[in-house]
């Protein structure tokens, strides 16, 4: 049986009432990249007022044209009265205007796509209201709020059950054959197990998580967080598969969170894809469905006990959240501890109050970042920081010259340091003379496997097929230059806020200098010669290879300095080296106005002092410590902060300081600054052209 041609589908986040502008953009996009078969709006079409605005009237009257067959769901905003009348009236199709349909439940398109929708917010949702100044204001405020809340669309526990039952009425290979699930809320737990962590808190929903887990859609689109977030695909369990041998594979879901058209931060708000009906793929034995991506994870979703309500509320001894198909959820003893209430009589040692365990004490957040006057660190005998944050803090085994080995128990008294008896045979290589944990063949296999896994999941390895190649500007012999995704600075073409600093450099100029090889840090290995008797996480490059790579990096630094100077800017270079669990190293480059280059050092030192980060120009090299380093354009020595093993350090510290220095703290989070792919390509092209006179790779 032949598989039908895939449908061209366009999905967007919230429109937020900009109806005319939105459909004009869609019409232009459809003419340029279409025609699209379907448009799905995974959020609010109307604004937060719920009023029948002029644009609402023009839409319902036909003055605003809808160019594509479009389906929208309810979000958090109330629906205008005129729209509610059409939705709740004698109109089974749900069409409120030509080509525009409000929908819920399950729909099958003419192309065979099965799409499930669950719009609105959970039953019982009440928006937060400001504290009133007196009883009269409180009464009026709550009355107004109740009226608005009545216009909202809410889903209940019964709605969740009905949607799941309807979707499962037609199934294949044990799944509901849903091609796309569209909801406003994000599913609870979706960011767990991901290498792209994001603290979703504004609009997560346990009922949505339950629906997603039951329906197992190929794609799940939501817009409740108003930010773009494309999570790695996840699979469900070993027995949830589609297709037949030899094409059988685990079924998986991709989650896409979308921004909105009118949001304070410019973020990606639309997503286009070609989609073949899952029912057709299953009928053809899975022959046309790609295998799960290599970076797919276990299912991150979390659901509550069925005795709880649709919003996951509990009381008494009811069970709380469960993790589905893997993870570290309710079965983890530490998580159980976090969910328990302490026994009567328990007093927290930190705040001297009952009601919570020490590890859950919120007073920990109130601890001052700097110690009181007179406090002296007992390790380095200097004031200004707590002993826990002392850069010279190190265990006795390090002081004695025994750095942390790769094994948990490796040390001067461990078995690994004693020779095995003559009769001992290593089970890995069947040779005598060494313990199995020191077997060179076993270590080599482990390193090769680890390196392959690192490269296949690495954002910066050119060997990874998923690397963002549209951001690459130049490739040298040992390093390459790329635009930063979600760059801190933007040029006039991509700035979303006129009040913030805009870079005169085409494309913005926030760059990354990246080694081509998968190097875990840029530390000079020649200074670590005395450590080569033991395998080290940071000793993954020879002195010669490091020299070649460093040569390319130095040339890129020089070229960027000259290029930025043409636009009256100077570069700030910063990088971080961690002593463990660090991926592909790179150097970030951010331009600042050349007129401010004498101010940046003092600003870095001030922020560092305020946040108990110790920056020094001279320090004693400690091979067991990581470090943060920033090279400033004032010509003086770099500032360096040493990072002890297992110590916390904000990996975004460099960007955090520069965002404040340039007066745009809202751009500190790179995820809030991600451009649409077409804008990324244009920005890269613009910078590449400006960089051409300085590009030594041409």
From TrEMBL:
Coiled coil: none annotated. PROSITE patterns: ZF_CCHC. Keywords: Metal-binding, Zinc, Zinc-finger. Residues 348-363, 426-441 form the CCHC-type domain. InterPro entries: Cwf19-like, Cwf19-like_C_dom-1, Cwf19-like_C_dom-2, Zn_knuckle_CX2CX3GHX4C, Znf_CCHC, Znf_CCHC_sf. It holds the Pfam family zf-CCHC. Residues 127-152, 284-339 are annotated as: Disordered. GO terms for biological process: mRNA splicing, via spliceosome. The keyword NADP does not apply. Residues 134-146 have a biased composition (Acidic residues). GO terms for molecular function: nucleic acid binding; RNA lariat debranching enzyme activator activity; zinc ion binding. GO terms for cellular component: post-mRNA release spliceosomal complex. This is CCHC-type domain-containing protein.
């Amino acid at each position: 049986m032949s598989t039908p041609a895939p449908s061209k589908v366009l999905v967007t986040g919230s429109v937020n009432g900009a109806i005319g502008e939105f459909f004009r953009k869609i019409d232009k996009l459809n003419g340029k990249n279409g025609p699209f078969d379907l448009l799905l709006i995974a959020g609010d079409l109307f604004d937060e007022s719920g009023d029948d605005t002029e644009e609402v009237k023009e839409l319902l009257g036909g003055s605003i044209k809808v160019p594509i067959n479009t389906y929208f769901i309810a979000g958090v905003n109330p629906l205008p009265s005129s729209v509610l009348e059409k939705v709740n009236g004698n109109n089974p199709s749900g069409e409120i205007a030509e080509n525009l349909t409000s929908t819920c439940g399950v729909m099958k398109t003419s192309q065979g796509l099965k799409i499930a929708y669950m719009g609105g917010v959970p039953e019982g949702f009440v928006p937060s209201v400001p504290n009133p100044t007196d009883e009269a204001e409180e009464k009026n405020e709550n009355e107004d709020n109740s009226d608005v809340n009545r216009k909202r669309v809410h889903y209940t526990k019964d709605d969740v059950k009905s949607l799941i039952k309807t979707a499962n009425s037609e199934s294949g290979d044990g799944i509901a054959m849903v091609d796309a699930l569209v909801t406003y809320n994000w599913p609870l737990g979706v960011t767990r197990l991901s290498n792209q962590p994001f603290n979703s808190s504004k609009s997560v929903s346990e009922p949505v998580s339950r629906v997603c887990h039951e329906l197992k859609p190929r794609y799940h689109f939501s817009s409740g967080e108003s930010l773009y977030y494309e999570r790695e695909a996840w699979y469900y369990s070993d027995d949830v598969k589609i297709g037949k041998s030899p094409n059988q594979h685990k079924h998986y879901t991709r989650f896409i969170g979308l921004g909105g058209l009118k949001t304070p931060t410019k973020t990606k708000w639309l997503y286009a894809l070609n989609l073949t009906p899952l029912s057709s793929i299953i009928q053809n034995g899975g022959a046309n469905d790609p295998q799960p991506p290599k970076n797919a994870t276990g299912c991150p979703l979390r659901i509550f006990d069925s005795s709880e309500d649709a919003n996951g509320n509990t009381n008494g001894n009811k069970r709380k959240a469960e993790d589905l198909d893997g993870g570290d959820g309710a079965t983890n003893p530490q998580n159980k501890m976090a969910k328990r209430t302490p026994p009567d009589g328990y007093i927290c040692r930190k705040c001297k109050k009952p009601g919570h365990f020490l590890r859950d004490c919120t007073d920990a957040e109130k601890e001052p970042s700097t110690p009181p006057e007179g406090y002296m660190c007992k390790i380095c005998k200097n004031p200004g920081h707590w002993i826990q944050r002392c850069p010279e803090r190190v265990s006795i085994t390090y002081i004695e010259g025994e750095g942390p080995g790769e094994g948990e128990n490796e040390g001067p008294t461990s078995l690994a340091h004693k020779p095995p008896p003559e009769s001992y045979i290593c089970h890995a290589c069947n040779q005598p003379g060494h313990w199995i944990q020191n077997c060179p063949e076993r270590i080599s296999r482990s390193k090769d496997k680890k390196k392959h896994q690192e490269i296949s999941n690495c954002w910066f390895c050119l060997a990874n097929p998923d690397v963002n190649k549209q951001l690459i500007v130049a490739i040298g012999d040992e390093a390459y230059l790329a635009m930063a995704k979600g760059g801190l600075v933007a040029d006039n073409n991509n700035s979303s806020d006129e009040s913030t600093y805009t870079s005169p450099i085409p494309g913005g100029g926030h760059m990354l200098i990246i080694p081509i090889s998968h190097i875990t840090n840029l530390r000079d290995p020649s200074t670590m010669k005395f450590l080569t008797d033991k395998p080290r996480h940071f000793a993954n490059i020879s002195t010669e290879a490091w020299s070649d790579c460093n040569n390319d990096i130095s040339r890129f630094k020089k070229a960027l300095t000259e290029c930025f100077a043409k636009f009256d800017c100077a570069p700030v270079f910063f990088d971080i080296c961690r002593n463990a669990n660090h991926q592909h190293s790179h150097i970030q480059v951010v331009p600042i106005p050349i007129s401010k280059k004498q101010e940046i050092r003092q600003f870095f030192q001030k922020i560092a002092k305020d946040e108990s980060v110790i920056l020094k120009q001279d320090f004693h090299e400690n091979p067991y410590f990581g470090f943060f380093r920033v090279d400033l354009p004032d010509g003086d020595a770099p500032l360096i902060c040493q990072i002890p093993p297992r110590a916390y350090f904000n990996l975004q510290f460099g960007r955090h300081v520069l965002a404040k220095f340039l007066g745009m703290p809202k751009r500190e989070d790179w995820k809030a600054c991600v451009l649409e792919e077409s804008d990324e390509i244009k920005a890269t092209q613009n910078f590449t052209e400006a960089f051409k006179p300085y590009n030594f790779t041409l």
